[in-house]
Each structure stands twice: as C-alpha cells, then as structure tokens.
Amino acid sequence: MNNQTLDFLLIAKLEILRSLRENSDRKTYGQKLKEAAQKLGKLERRVRRLVRTWQENGLAALAEVPRTSFGTNPTLCIVGLIRVKLRKSSLVKGL
User: Fold this and answer.
1) Mean pLDDT score across all residues of the chain
2) What is the pLDDT of residue 34?
3) What is the pLDDT of residues 38-66, one digit of tens each?
4) Which DSSP symbol is given to 95?
C-alpha cells in the first residue's frame, strides 16, 4: 500500500470513530458502536478501546503497527512466525 492509501484508511477510521463521540443516548450509541465495529471489521470491545486510546493519545494511536513480539507462549510464537512468513510470501507473489 502506498502512503495515499494509508492516509485514506486512517481518515476513514477517524471519521468512523469521530461519529461515536457525537452526543447520543445509550441506545443510539450502541447502534453506532455496532455499525462502527462492522465497518472496521473489529469487535465492539476493540472499537471502544480504539476510541479511548484515540482520546488519550491522539491521532497517532490509530495507526496499526504490526506486533514484533508474540509473547512467551511457544505456540503463539510459532503461529505468529508462520503468519509473518505467509504474509511475506504472499506479498512477493503479488509483485
């Protein structure tokens, strides 16, 4: 992806999260939260965390950064490494 695509995705994510901050009652907020989660392809809980992180840390908090560590669980480490290798091989095939 190029920088313009990334900027567009970040702006789209920002607009979706910004709509959640508008004043609304509980029922309306719940509906907006479900819609935002569907649009972003995330769980509602993750969207709530994104909003909170955005409020606390600003726009930079919305950029998705790939994990560099998969913790101490050996199974997660192996699965994570396989995913990284698959992503890299699919990117090479795409060129």
Assistant:
1) 75
2) 93
3) 998 889 999 999 888 888 888 777 776 66
4) -
- Report helix angle 26-40 to 44-57, nearest 10: 100
CA 23 to mean position of chain CA atoms: 23
Amino acid at 15: E
DSSP single-letter state for residue 2: -
pLDDT at 55: 84
Is 20 in contact with 28 (CB distance < 8 Å)? no
Listed residue (38, 51, 39) closest to 9, CA to CA: 39
Q: Among candidates 71, 80, 20, 27, which has minimal Cα distance to 49?
A: 20
**DSSP notation for 22-88:** S---HHHHHHHHHHHHHHHTS-HHHHHHHHHHHHHH-GGGGS----S---S-HHHHHHHHHHHHHHH
pLDDT of residue 16: 87
